[in-house]
Design brief:
With 257 residues, the chain is of the alpha+beta class. It is built from 5 helices and 12 strands. Helix 1 runs parallel beside helix 4 and helix 3 crosses helix 4. Bound molecules: biotin. The site of biotin (BTN) has 20 residues, from helix 2, strand 3, strand 6 and strand 7.
């Protein structure tokens, strides 16, 4: 795909009234868009930047995992901006919600921030922050499967956006999600997650299901709290899980533990 097909200018025109120093960059290849924007933040480059890579050679997922993607079959980008919310909790949920609402009514959210459709993973989000000299910068990385991909080596079978939006390209998808995502981040900085709780709940794929976590908890998901914690009804009471360094999976439907 040629960089010229990316809607960089259109996105810039939508966003620059909100973020005057905003830039959009499209690279044919880089190790990881998150790694690059974190390097820039640590080097003191704080301009709000949307960085798209047609191909990542070392894409990173949550919890130290690898994020694999094929040029043209997926959308990989990161957004970096100076950021100072009163409360960071629930930020990754807000990002997932913004993406889901921009993509399709059927896109669900699996706490904390996976995009799921019918128990398959459509995309993931990696939120990182850098702090330098009293300023903080957030880097939000997004990977979306646009066209079907092999399930080899994945914990969760993949879904592809073209199943619900036939013919859509990575570039068109970027055009749909970028400006609303930036608006969501600016709103979140002022008001946090609580105003988004009900909209998250409408897409919450875990609520009402029995789940288990990577650190050994299990229970019935009661949904998310106003601060974005996952609320589990366990045998010993209600447990609020705040850490994003935990992965959560539903038990298979027939499993009544
Ligand atoms: C996950 O579900 O584990 C999160 C995946 C995040 C992948 C995106 S692709 C663009 C950005 N650059 C990276 O190296 N990772 C994120």
């Amino acid at each position: 795909m040629s960089p010229n097909t990316w809607p960089a200018e259109a996105i810039w025109e939508q966003v620059y009234p909100l973020l005057p120093d905003f830039t959009v960059e499209v690279l044919p290849e880089i190790d990881s868009t998150n790694s690059e924007l974190m390097r820039r933040a640590r080097a003191g480059q704080h301009e709000p930047t949307l960085l798209v890579a047609e191909r990542q050679t070392a894409g990173r997922g949550r919890m130290g995992r690898v994020w694999q993607s094929q040029a043209g079959d997926s959308l990989t980008f990161s957004l970096s901006l100076p950021y100072a919310p009163k409360d960071w909790s629930g930020l990754s949920l807000a990002v997932g919600l913004s993406l889901a609402e921009s993509l399709h009514p059927q896109v669900g959210l699996k706490w904390p921030n996976d995009l799921w459709v019918h128990a398959r993973k459509l995309g993931g989000i990696l939120v990182e922050a850098a702090s330098m000299g009293g300023r903080s910068q957030v880097v939000i990385g997004v990977g979306l499967n646009i066209r079907p991909r092999p399930a080899d080596g994945l914990n969760t079978p993949p879904a592809a956006l073209t199943e619900w939006r036939p013919g859509i390209t990575a570039a068109q998808t970027l055009g749909l999600v970028a400006a609303p995502l930036i608006q969501t981040l600016l709103n979140f900085e002022q008001t946090g997650f609580a105003p988004l709780q009900a909209r998250f709940e409408a897409r919450d794929v875990l609520k009402g299901h029995r789940v288990h976590t990577s650190d050994g908890a299990q229970g019935l998901s009661l949904g998310v709290s106003p601060s974005g914690a996952l609320r589990l009804q366990t045998a010993s009471g209600v447990l609020d899980i705040h850490s994003s360094e935990v992965s959560v999976r539903p038990f298979p439907a027939e499993d009544k533990r």
